[in-house]
Amino acid sequence: MRYTISYVSTSNPNVSDIDITQLMDYVKTQNCLLNITGILIYSDGNFLQVLEGAKEVITTLFEKIKKDPRHYNIIKMLDKEISDTSFSDYHSSFTVISDHDGPIELQKFLKKEKLSNPEHFKSIQYLIQKFMKLL
Ligand SMILES: Cc1cc2nc3c(=O)[nH]c(=O)nc-3n(C[C@H](O)[C@H](O)[C@H](O)COP(=O)(O)O)c2cc1C
């Protein structure tokens, strides 16, 4: 079984755009190494992150993320097991999106998510749409 944790948070005002870009690059590289899939979206001073991977890896990482001074107001939204699929293992990549990226990357992520995690796709889509104020 894989595990997912999802949360929203607010970026610390003293974190610059450059810091955000560096964080996004770091997260993408690190999560691919750790076989973590999901997404980190930065929009209008807020983060939304969906982490999917081995339970131990995800819960340990979330404990670290919660203590990170680059953000605050961390509100956890999903914390549950998800079933393993061949897609999540073989197409493992972590998506990062910030204000400058158009909706294309987001659509790509949602398409991939529908294939790899059909049973929790609906909640993820709902959370992302609310977050991006698309509804
Ligand atoms: C909004 C946000 C999301 C983060 N997401 C991840 C992540 O998905 N993977 C990761 O390795 N670090 C992530 N980090 C960074 C971690 O908080 C932490 O700095 C990193 O794991 C290095 O920790 P260490 O130096 O104790 O090993 C995130 C930080 C923030 C502020």
Automatic annotation (TrEMBL):
A GO molecular function held by the record: FAD binding
SMART domains membership: BLUF
Residues of the BLUF domain: 2-93
InterPro entries the record matches: Acylphosphatase-like_dom_sf, BLUF_domain
Pfam families, A to Z: BLUF
Domain of life, per lineage: Bacteria
SUPFAM superfamilies referenced in this protein's UniProt entry, alphabetically: Acylphosphatase/BLUF domain-like
Protein name: BLUF domain-containing protein
Organism annotation: Aquimarina mytili
